[in-house]
Every structure is written in C-alpha cells, then in structure tokens.
Write a structure and sequence with these properties.
By secondary structure, the protein is an alpha/beta fold. Helix content is 34%, strand content 19%. The strands form 7 sheets. An 8-stranded parallel barrel has the order 3-4-5-9-10-11-12-13, surrounded by 6 helices. The protein has a 5-stranded parallel beta sheet with strand order 16-15-14-17-28. A hairpin with a 2-residue loop joins strand 23 and strand 24 (576-581).
C-alpha cells in the first residue's frame, strides 16, 4: 500500500505516510503522562508526530528542552518515529506569562482579533484582550526569536520544525488575514504585504536551521469566516513560502471562531464524510511541487490509501482516531477491525481542553492520558463478578474485569447488548454509534465474558450465584412530567420514537430540550415533520459546551425546528400542547403528537435490595445518575480496574 511507503524530506525519512496531527493535550511535556501518551501511539505505527502548539519561548528554557528530550523525543525515537514541534506565537509579547504575570497583548493591527479572544478564554485568565499594533522593530524581533527557537529545537533532537500558521490564534495566521491585518505599511495592505511576515519568517528559519533540516508549514486553506483569507490567496502564499525554504505544506482548514458566523467545525463530525477537507489540500497539490499533508476525519485506512495513492496528497494527519485508539494503524493493517475503538467524532477531546482548561479526555477511551495506570494486568485474586446491565457502562466494566482474568457473567434483559446506545443507532447524524456497539459486543465476547441475553437479573438471582462482586449498570428510565393530559393517546416517549416503536404525526411538540430531545427533533425533522421543542431552561442542550450546543441549535434550525426556551409545558390537549413562558404568557402549540423527553431517573431499585448482601457492590453509569456517555464508559473502566 502506498500509505505505508516511506517518504524522504531533506534527507529525513518518515517510515510511512500517516502522521499524528498536532494536538494540544494539556499534559505536561516533561513527565510520565506525556511519555506514556506518545509511547502508545509510537508503538501503534505512526510515521511521525507533531507536538501541538509548542510555545517558542519555552525553547529558551534548558529545563524544558532536557525534559522534552528525556520524556518525549527519546521515547518515540525508539520506535523509528520522527517528531517535530509546532512552533507558535500567540498574541502575548512575550508569549509566556513571566513569573505568573500576563504579558502585553499585541497583534498585527490594534483591536481584538478573534483568535486572541480564543486564547484569552483557553490559555489565560478572562480578558478583553485588546491588542496594540506591533511595531516593525518588534516584528523583526519576533521573527529572530522564532529562528533562535528553531535552532534550539533542532539541537534538542527534534527531526523537523512545523510553524503553526492557521486557525486564527497566532501571529503568523493573523498577519495573512485581511480581517486581522489592517496595517498600511509594508506588512499589510495587499496580498504581498500580508504575506511579508510569513515569508520573512520562513527565510529566517531556513537560514538558521540550514539546508539539511526539514521545515513544515501548517496553514488554514481558508478561514470559512467572513473577511478571512481565501483558498486562492493561500495557494499563492504557499508557493511563495516554498520559494523561501518551506519543504512541506500541511493544509488545515478554518478559523477557531468560525462558528460565530456558522458552526463550521475545524473537526468534522460523524455525519460528515471522511476525508472531507482533502479537496482543499488537492488545490495545493495541483500547484506545488512539494509534499502536501491533508486532514479531515481520516478514520479509515482505505480513505488514507485512496487519497495518497491517487496523488491527492502525499501524507495524512490523523488526530482524534489516534486518541480513541493509539493502535488504530496496526490493528487496521493486520485486519483486527473488531478490536478498533471507533472515534465518535464528538469532539469532547478538544472541548475538555478548550472549555475546561483540563487535560484532554476521550469518551470511548478511558485510558487516554492514563495509559500506564490503565495498562491491563491480571488481578491479584481472581473473583466471580456479576454485571447487571449490558449498556456501555456494564459492557466496559465487564470487558476490563474479564481481561484482568476475573470470571465475569453479564446479564442483559434485552435481546441485544448496547443499552441506550441502541436507539442512537437509528439516528442518521450518528452513524458511528453502530460501530461502537459492535466494538463493545465483540470485546466482551473475546474477553471471555459469559453473556446472558434476555435474562432479567433479580436480587434472588444474584444471591443464588454467590458472586464475589456485583456491578449494577441498569441505566435509567424516562421521566414523565405530571401535567394534565399527559396520559392521552397522542403522547409518546422520545424512546418510542427513536427505536421506531411509535410513529409521529405531521406536527410534533417535544417536551424537553436535552440531548434526547434534540436527537428526536432532528430525526423527525429529517422525516419532514414540523417540530417544536419546548425547554424550561434558558438554553437547548445545556449539558453540552456552548460550542456544541450552538452547533446543535444551528443544525436543528436549518432543518426547520422551532426551539422555545424558558417555556414550561402546562397541559396536553386534543390539539397540542399549552405552554407558559417566563412572563406568564400562555401559548397553544398545535401538535398531532406530543413527545416526552423531559429527562431520566436512575433504575436503582436493585441497589437497595442488595445492600449488605454482596461482598462487593458497585454502581456505574446512569443508574447512579443519568449523565453522558463519557461518564458511563469511564466509570465502567474504573470499576473494572478496581475489582
């Protein structure tokens, strides 16, 4: 396969064409957490890894350089993997706080660049981040500092350098952007002026690192943002960068704040096609005679092979799938498809970093950032473990416990494993859920779990089995609000709609605005129904991060769904639903069908029955408290390792 052929760049040979995309992890680079994180992905078969957004000022610290060399560089080199930092300069001068004090905000032009606002929210304390305009002297000093940092990175043992010049949150991107660069001197104005900073930077870097050291340049093909640069401009710019000494163009897409105008994700969702951003990279490939890296949900080896073998790109960057499964490449290449943990494209990884300012997490991979802690080792004492419930929490607990050599019996009252994932499987906008159900089902089977489908498990059943440990993963049930008319025939639960047990009329009112309500609304809207969502809270999908909620609302609105917030359902009538808003005004929503999606309650009755009757009793997932998929899977893993 072409994807596994080596490629040589200025004498540096990368063993295959699959690179790990630069990902900001919030793990300290000097330490065992980063070592284990990169070690697993190096073992998994990547050709090269680029460290995400590495602040260039950090390279003037010997402590930082020595730590990165010991914990990261040497680690991946043991597996023949190349590594380079993604050098970055944000809107602070210098770009690292000094003695805990935030430095001065600067930008190509005075004002508040959108990328600067992003940085103030993610990396530093909240700020209006008003930036003053950089002087020409300061511009040249920044370029010189980049060059010195590149030399230090080279001396530290990195194999190449990447410049981060995309997504809006760095000076290299902002100087090229007509939105952020409003200068009237030689560093602004027309296209030539806006390219000047980048071209001088590329030239300075090439002079500093010499003729035998590779230089990559990561850029957004276009911003997908009003006033941003265009694809045509970017291709011209890239051509000039190559003349200035750049060896590889890494073609990304978008601006971090593009959701303001429309929720165009930097990271494609599950409903969007794999390789969706490759056409942007192709535009560069057609014009330039240097290696081009493409991105855009490359979660299939077939897709990677297709775009490389057809000459659309020379290499691909893979990010989220390598977070979900660090051994994705090796598993795919050896045909172990059932063992691949499938990325759900939910973007929880980026939002935990961006919104929680915390180390990144993955919904489907609890071992992310905990690789050493969650390495599977046999338990000190083999136990008989009963798991009640075959949803994601129960399956993960059973899988981990069985792999640790426990005897595990899993009871599921339904005819299939999956729990509440089974209704999501029908949703057109969540096509990856079926692969997750398949993964869990196969893994519990391969781990040796005894699976009892179609068997409800009572406390008497458990007592008679005489287990050493019991894990309750019985999930949750929908809540039915106590309002007049709720028992009428045209009132159905969201679950009935989602699993296809009931059909909705042409006009639908949904009580509730959480995730289940949104999924139901999208499904019905795609069927051509007229849907109104009624939410008592101030926002739709309030459990999500604002960006995710915004995207959901945008998509629902685009499908014609009416969303009413701060509105309470008062009564179901023959003709629809009566609601009251925050000011006490009453409205009648015409509906043939009223769908109830008003939250859930734990199925925890069996817990009380087993108190004091099981040597070890645990509860995981929604039977503790209805929450999200990440809570279910991570709690299941935690208990599986704990027993």
């Amino acid at each position: 396969m072409k994807i596994f052929e080596p490629i040589t760049i200025r004498g540096m040979e990368i063993k295959n064409r699959i690179l790990m995309a630069p990902i900001a992890t919030n793990y300290p680079l000097r330490g065992n957490q980063s070592k284990q994180f990169y070690l697993e992905r190096a073992k998994g078969g990547i050709g090269a890894v680029t460290l995400g957004a590495t602040n260039m000022d950090a390279f003037f610290s010997n402590r930082f350089i020595d730590g990165v060399r010991e914990w990261v560089i040497d680690t991946v080199h043991e597996y023949g993997v190349k590594i380079g930092p993604e050098l970055w300069q944000g809107n602070l001068l210098p770009s690292l706080p000094m003695k805990g004090i935030m430095q001065e905000w600067v930008a190509p032009s005075a004002g508040i660049p959108l990328g600067g606002r992003s940085l103030s929210r993610v990396l530093h304390a909240p700020s209006n981040c008003y930036c003053r305009e950089l002087s020409v002297t300061e511009i040249k000093e920044i370029i010189a500092k980049f060059a010195r940092a590149a030399v230090k990175a080279k001396d530290a043992g990195f194999d190449y350098i990447t410049i981060h010049a995309g997504h809006g949150h760095n000076l290299a991107d902002q100087f090229f952007s007509p939105r952020d660069n409003r200068r009237t001197d030689e560093y602004g104005g027309d296209l030539k002026g806006r390219m000047r900073f980048g071209l001088e930077l590329a030239g300075a870097l090439r002079s500093a690192i010499g003729d035998t050291y590779p230089l990559f340049w990561r850029m957004s093909a276009e911003h997908l943002l009003p006033g941003g640069h265009t694809l045509e401009e970017s291709v011209v710019y890239a051509g000039e960068l190559v003349k200035a000494g750049v060896d590889v163009i890494d073609v990304s897409i978008g601006h971090e704040e593009a959701y303001i105008s429309r929720p165009t994700p930097l990271l494609l969702g599950a409903a969007q096609p794999m390789g969706g951003y490759i056409p942007y990279a192709e535009a560069f490939k057609r014009k330039l005679n240097v290696p081009i890296i493409g991105v855009g949900r490359i979660h299939s080896l077939e897709i990677a092979e297709e775009v490389v073998s057809q000459g659309k790109v020379d290499m691909v960057n893979v990010g989220r799938q390598l977070l979900a499964d660090p051994h994705w490449i090796d598993k795919t290449a050896s045909g172990r498809f059932d063992d691949i943990i499938p990325c759900q494209c939910c973007n929880t990884c980026i939002w935990t970093f961006r919104e929680e300012q915390a180390p990144i997490k993955c919904v489907v991979n609890p071992s992310l950032g905990r690789e050493a802690e969650y390495a599977v080792r046999p338990a000190e004492k083999r136990k008989k473990v009963l798991v009640v419930g075959g949803g994601p929490a129960g399956m993960e607990a059973a899988r981990v416990a069985a792999r640790r050599n426990h005897e595990v019996i899993l009871y599921e009252k339904g005819e299939r494993l999956g729990g509440l994932l089974l209704w999501q499987e029908r949703l057109p906008h969540k096509p990856t859920v079926s692969s997750l159900i398949h993964y869990f089902s196969k893994q519990v089977e391969k781990a040796g779990v005894q699976i009892r489908l179609g068997e409800a498990c009572s406390s008497a059943t458990i007592e008679s089995a005489d287990p050493d440990a019991v894990i309750i993963a019985t999930g949750s049930s929908p809540i039915t609000p106590e309002i007049p008319g709720i028992g009428m025939e045209h009132v159905v639960s969201a679950l009935d709609i989602l699993i296809g047990r009931k059909q909705a009329g042409e006009k639908v009112a949904i009580i509730g605005g959480g995730l289940v309500a949104c999924d139901t609304a999208e499904l019905l809207a795609e069927q051509g129904k007229k849907v109104t969502v009624v939410e008592v809270l101030a926002s739709i999908a309030s459990v999500l991060y604002p960006f995710q909620s915004h995207e959901i609302c945008f998509n629902l609105g685009a499908k014609g769904v009416i969303m009413m917030t701060n509105v309470k359902g008062e009564e179901v009538t023959e003709t629809g639903l009566v609601v009251t808003d925050a000011w006490g005004h009453k409205y009648n929503i015409e509906a043939d069908t009223v769908v109830v999606a008003a939250g859930a309650k734990p199925n925890d009755a069996i817990l009380g029955e087993l108190e004091g009757k099981a040597p070890e009793l645990y509860a995981v997932g929604d039977c503790v408290e209805p929450r999200r998929l990440i809570n279910a899977i991570h709690e299941g893993a935690q208990i599986g390792f704990q027993i």
